[in-house]
Amino acid sequence: MLSQPKVSEDLYCHKAETTVLFGQFVVFQTLTSDVVEIYDGSSTDSALLSSIHGSHSGETLPLSSGNKITLKFTTNGTEAAKGFHFVYQAVPRTSASQCSSVPEPRFGKRIGNDFGIGMVVLFECSPGYTLHGSNAIRCEAVPSALAQWNGTVPTCVVPCGGVLTERKGTILSPGYPEPYANYLNCAWKISVPEGAGIQIQVVTFATEHNWDSLDFFDGVDGNARRLGSYSGTTIPQLLNSTSNNLYLTFQSDISVSAAGFHLEYTAIGLDSCPEPLPPSNGQRVGDRYTVGDMVSFQCDQGFTLQGNAYITCMPGPVRRWNYPVPLCLAQCGGSMTDFSGVILSPGFPGNYQSSLDCSWRVQLPIGFGIHLQFMNFSTEPVHDYLEVRSGNLETGTVIDRSSGPVVPNSLFSTTHETTLFFHSDYSQNKHGFHIVYQAYELQRCPDPRPFRNGIVIGQEYSVGMTISFECLPGYTLLGEPSLTCLHGVSRNWNHPIPRCDALCGGNVTSMNGTIYSPGHPAEYPHFQDCMWTVRVPPGYGIYINFSVINTEPIYDYITVWDGPDQASPQIGQFSGNSVQEGVSTTANQVLIKFHSDFSTSGFFVLKYYAYQLRTCQPPPPVANATILTDDDEFEIGDIIRYSCLPGFTLVGSEILTCRLGERLQMDGPPPVCQVQCPAHEVRFDSTGVILSPGYPDSYPNLQMCSWLINVEKGYNMTLHFELFQTEKEFDILEIFDGPNIYGQSLASLSGDIETPFNLTTAGHQLLLRWSSDHGTNRRGFHIRYVAMYCSTPDSPQHGFVVSQTGGHLNSMVRWACDRGYKLIGKGTAVCKKTPYDFYAWDSPVPACQAVSCGVPTAPVNGGVLAADYSVGTRVTYFCNNGYRLSSKELTTTVCQPDGTWSNHNKIPRCIVIMCPSLSSFSLDHGKWRIVNGSHYEYGTKIIFTCNPGFYRVGPAHIQCLANGVWSWRSERPRCRIISCGDLPTLPNGKKIGTQNTFGASAIFSCNLGYVLTGSTVRECLLSGLWSGMETHCLAGHCGVPEQIVNGQVIGENFGYRDTVVYQCNPGFRLIGSSVRICQQEHGWSGQLPVCISVTCGHPGSPIYGRTTGDGFNYNDVVRFSCNKGYTLEGPSTAQCQANRQWSRQPPTCRVVNCTDPGIPANSIRESKIEHGNFTFGSVVFYDCNPGYYLFGSSVLTCQPVGHWDKPLPECIEVDCSHPGAPPHGVMSGEKFTFGSTVRYSCSGEHLLIGDSSLTCQLNGHWSGPLPHCSGDSAGTCGDPGTPTHASREAGNFKVRSKVRFTCAVGHTLYGSAERICFPNGTWSGRQPFCKPVQCGNPATPAHGRISRVDGTTFSHSIMYSCMEGYLLTGSPTRQCLANGTWSGAAPNCTLITCGDPGIPANGLRFGEEITVGQNVTYTCQPGYVMIGEDSTVARTCTNNGTWSGTLPACIVVTCPTPPPIPNGLLEGSVLEWGTSVSYSCLPGYELSFPAVLTCTGNGSWSGDLPQCLPKFCGDPGMPAKGRREGRSFIFKSEVVFSCSTPYVLVGSTTRMCQEEGVWSGSQPRCIEPTRTTCENPGTPEHGFMNYTTGFKVGSRIDFQCQQGHLLQGSTTRLCLPDLTWTGIQPSCISHSCKQPRSPANADVVGLDLPSYGYTLVYSCQPGYFLSGGSEHRVCRSDSSWTGKVPVCRVGSKSQEKTVKSVMGTPSPKINVPDDVFASDFVWKGSYDYKGQKQPMTLTVTSFNATMGKVNVTLTDSSMEFLLSGVYKRQEARLMLLLYQMRALAHSSLSRITDETWAMDGFVSAEPEGGSYVFQGFIQGKDYGQFGLQRLGLSMRENVTLADPETNGSTNSSSVAVAILVPFFALIFAGLGFYLYKQRKTDKAQYTGCSVHENNNGQATFENPMYNTNTKAAEGKVVRFDPNLNTICTMV
């Protein structure tokens, strides 16, 4: 029941009689003058239960005594309040033993349902509420009365504060869920057990913004650090404490409340972050989530981690991870090297994106391919596709292309590099694909089976093997018919596998076959027009059987023509799917055409076979004719004779013969029988018929015909007319009894004459003449003429009449045919009388047909050619393709008259054509075989294959062609040896072996200090691949360990069980093992650790502000900003530092204050703040004093920018305006504003009628109507006057006259519009007045101003304007209209914004506000710099909505061109940030060390600048008894040798140091002038020397070893002109293997190779090359040798370019100055240590010019050497000995272990005025050559070092003592590090260990190992037990 404001209201409640009512006010808030009364009954006359007012909550009422209550609510005055909410409930009446029912308290519950005497009911509240009242009541008995409870039901209320100690709980705003009250000041303290934190979850939150706030303090009271202060509706969803206490306060002000809040708190682990979920398609590694713990993530195969792989739980007010959980996404493309893997479409398993071009590259070791298996596949058909390419993306061959929804079959890529390319267009995205690949070793080429629609010939698919393909009948082979398996890196066929397709058309010549629809067995495509021509040998026809036909009816059809083209007769057109009859041709060719349209496909199968052509098709019947034939079948040579019926004339051939031409058919078309119009036809037959032209049709016009009939003399003729119908008089038949028109006219007939009728002639001749005009045509006439005898019959063609007995009745005639012809028809005829009573022969004249010899027997594999087989015909025999007629046989035969062939059936033979024998053809290293046929006859196919280790060039197969030649033309197959390609020489190693063909082997070894991994020996296999694993020379046993990003690796020894230590740079910490051990399998133990940023945790947010930033890790920057209405005081940014602290503390956010807006004159201001600061959100209300009205806005709000949203309003004084004066009246008073009074009086004798004074009232009206003065005479009323702005209609003012008033437009009439003059001289009603229409106070737009020109009444105007930063939209002026409204619509003031200012490419923008006056700042990303001088640029949003300035541009940092180095070249032209350049040297020079310079973000190059030092050839030596000129041994230096008298120099007189670093020529010697022979080289022990030609120049000696010994060295040696021997003096070593035959001119070296065996390595001596045999031979277990004896031939390989030694230009002889080692000069260069160049600097500290004594300091990256020596000027030579050394930080002294360590070198002057170089060798283990170049004077301070001689340190033993200093071994739990100290160096303080947990049992370091401020010390990382888990270092 809710209250409603009324003056008085009675509410009546009624329930059943057996119950009473229990009532309670949930909410009650009324004014003190407003009362609610509750009566115990149905009316206000009942007893009063309660009367309440004011504020109450949960107020309960006494139970009613009955089942009715009445509520009465009375209000007084105009003010309002919230009211009340009353609930009631019916409860049972009580009894003596039963108490009344107990209702449940609101926001609580009752425990117990038994209300009997003695029973107790308990109460408890919902979380967040507390119980007011007793928590239990008891039902007690009352004597002589009803049982009663001993207490009342308690209420549940929200406390204002409290102490909470449970682990979870609820905090509500007081009064919740009702709005909280004003003037609250509540505090809650939450305490949970120590070790736990508190997490607040906000369920609901709503308070008065800015005024009613909830504050959180991270501690026990309000003095603790404030976590936040919140009002309005903005609050974080979660808040966390950093301790086990949390303090909350809530304050509300004097007015305006809100819904309040509902908070839930729970105790959480103080140091734990929420459990991170593993990413989809990935896994999480790690299950500890406390502060500082780290978890890592990894993705499933095929997915790529996007984000951070490691996240750390951060400290701070909120337990959170420093990075979000990463994602595992399927990327667009990638590169894979694993032997198995997964490839997914981008976005899988979701849909891929549009417009993609992705490529995945799988790179495997050579010799492997991949097997691709498609698990899923779905793309948009055609448009989105996946290509698989064998090779790279640019040049690889497409081996498969897939598109659409069908999952492709698995496929093999047969090369070590495979690329998958995926393209999607702009539409229709699908799920994509999931592909699994697995590597496999390339052994054989892919199996081409199953080969659809064909067969594969050959089942061997290994390297070099050839297979062939053939198609099934009806299919055509597309591609190469033979394929060969290639060798090399790809195991594939030399051509794509062909295919057998049913083509659209073709030429077919086989005797039988099949024609398939295009694409069969698939359905044929649309829009096809295919034509097949089938041709068989002459004499054959073709039968076509429609085995299967299923086409779209009508629209897709097959057409067949009986011949080669469409001009031939069409046999038929076939379509649909019904069974079709077969068709035959009469020709040996048939044309078949298939057409399909744009829709509905199908298929068909046609089978055909050739058949012998024997019979012609019967010709069609001829009208009005009879035929004469032998029988019904027309075989070749048979005739048909045509005869026309009497009266008809035969047009065409009378006889047709069945002949075999282009097709088997009659030799002409059938004739026709016509009725002609002869000009003068003469007939001699005894009987006949004459018909009108065109009979039986109507005769034509304009005809003139005549017939002359002659019979034998003595006979006359009778004409029998059977029909006569002509046009009367115009179309006339004339009959003359005689031969011409001059004879007697028997008749002239025309018109319709009734028939039959007869005419008889007198003589034996008769002339008939017919003529028709141009007019009407009729049927004509039919006339039979008869002479009573049989006329003599004709003779048949090729026949004659044998006899005739006359022409009378029963006479006989006999016929016969010429020789070679036979009679067709009857040979005799008898003259008989016909039924028509005339005489005629009873049989027609017969015909004579040529005798046929029949079809001659064709030869096997041949045929015959003839048109027919009749007498005289010559038949020619022919042979099919590939056959020829035997030359001994006749090629023709003739049909003889006796019906036999002239050859008496002797059939010629067709002999198969033979190709030349191949017995003389030899395929070296290969073989050939016949795959079909035998010997070399036509059709024989021969396939060539090469032996293992060889491959074929030239044709793979040949066939014997029909012309008897082989198909190979001029090209012959050859087998070439397979090459595996060159194996590169190992960096830091050597390779023995120059051959790269099958069977060749290469032996590898490594330089000193390097360890070989992979295969020591690799052999070229028949697959074209090298055996074994790729060989590497590692620095040490494991090679240089991998570097880590943001860290470094410490350790210089990489041997077995040596260790290295990883450290991170400041600001990063190590994840993983810090120590890695070199293991036996040449790898470093464990995984490479990573350096991840340290984290500073969340910096906290300023109160009333927020913190933004993507990360809280090292170098990350966060930005602070304030909420609206607050301004920042303090830093705006902070950066995470290496010490895990933020560089600045969060700032404070001060609330924005507006200035006091002031109080307008005559106004009243209301505000919560009267004298304090008007903070953001403050509201002031204005009203005017009585007598004034408000113009402008009555409410002003303080804006976030510190100004009020609207200007001050104005209070305008109420003005009643001039009231006017009546006629004859006088008004006194000058003011017309509120409270002013004017007075009236009348002039003369006029009396004032009405009020004498009027007062201006609040409503702007005068207090009464205007008075008037009485009339001039009785019976009249005085003139009432006319109000201002009015018009009047008036009479004479007499009694009952009327006056009407009307106001002007825009004015309103107040008073009476019509007045009547009463008899008493007064006017009815009230005098009106016209007030201008009032438009009122117009709304002031937010952020705008309004001004008035005058007032706010009709016709007045107002003007609008906007505050700064806002733009007026709408009309700036409005006018008060007559209807009391303002014209138009109010304009708006919209905030001026400048739009997105943009972000430059590679730049950053700070600032998001885009309103007027706001700034944005630009900087460039690392590695980029802003164009111009500034590093930052600011832009401001201006009033016109545009940004000041222009968008800056960031260009990549470019470093200056790196400095050139003498004799060097710069490699690389890109000089942008992040790119690197390197240097190379000119020929003859080498880099002091490999150097790479990298362009850094500040525009400078990082890295050391190298030098190009001239190549050092070393000391060329001095011949005994000789001299040498020249002391420089560098590139281009020249030395000259000479001998002392009388010795003679042999060898090179002059030698030059060449660019390869070797001396030209040969080493000279000085010999006695009498010597002419070489010295005896000696016989090797256990060997023999053959020197039959002696030792003179040019002589050759041969060496051999005894049995059981092997020769090592040169097998032969030659005496050269300089009297020296070539080669190496051999030796004979004992061995179990047999001595192989030794080749001449070769050098032999024996090697015992592990796991390979004892190996002899052969190399040819200079001037010879290996032309055959094996370079390496290995001793087998049976003591025999692999390979063949090598052959060394004179000369060089033709394909090898002869490399000549090119002499350098001799340098000028520049002398080295004596003081080249003057003090303070700096020499820079490098030295070789374990095969690697190490940069070093040598500084001369002192130089004694007299003695040549030199003291130097040599430093490298880790060591400092103090050296001393004596410079020998004559030799330009200096040897420096070590007398003291010290290790720099992070290094060890392990390099120096040899007490004879020294630097020995020569000084040379560089040519062309260059500097000086000091080059030579370092004597010491693992050390090599060094080179230094003098650069200039040192810039350092002079340092005086004690002369080693003065310290007594001159001998080697003392030097050794200085090196081998004592050391302390600190052993703690198996400690593995030794710290070396100098005897005089203070021991660095040991400060303990820095260790944390890891998962591999080894130590992990978070901080740098060494204190960089400690003095130089020696230290070494040595071998130690890998099971140790603690490492202590200097920290």
UniProtKB/TrEMBL annotation:
Primary location recorded for the protein, binned into one broad class: membrane
Keywords: Disulfide bond, Glycoprotein, Membrane, Repeat, Signal, Sushi, Transmembrane, Transmembrane helix
The protein's name in its UniProt record: CUB and sushi domain-containing protein 3-like
Location of the protein in the cell: Membrane
Residues covered by the Sushi domain: 97-158, 271-330, 443-502, 614-675, 788-850, 851-912, 913-977, 978-1035, 1036-1093, 1094-1151, 1152-1213, 1214-1271, 1275-1332, 1333-1391, 1392-1452, 1453-1510, 1511-1568, 1572-1630, 1631-1690
Family, per entry: Belongs to the CSMD family.
PROSITE patterns to which the protein is assigned, alphabetical: CUB (PS01180), SUSHI (PS50923)
Transmembrane segments: 1855-1876
A family per Pfam: CUB
Entry-linked InterPro entries: CUB_dom, SEZ6_CSMD_C4BPB_Regulators, Sperma_CUB_dom_sf, Sushi/SCR/CCP_sf, Sushi_SCR_CCP_dom
Residue stretches making up the CUB domain: 160-268, 332-440, 504-616, 677-788
Cysteines joined through disulfide linkages: C1006-C1033, C1064-C1091, C1122-C1149, C1184-C1211, C1242-C1269, C1303-C1330, C1362-C1389, C1394-C1437, C1481-C1508, C1539-C1566, C1601-C1628
PANTHER family: PROTEIN CBR-CLEC-78, SUSHI DOMAIN-CONTAINING PROTEIN
Any one of the GO CC terms: membrane
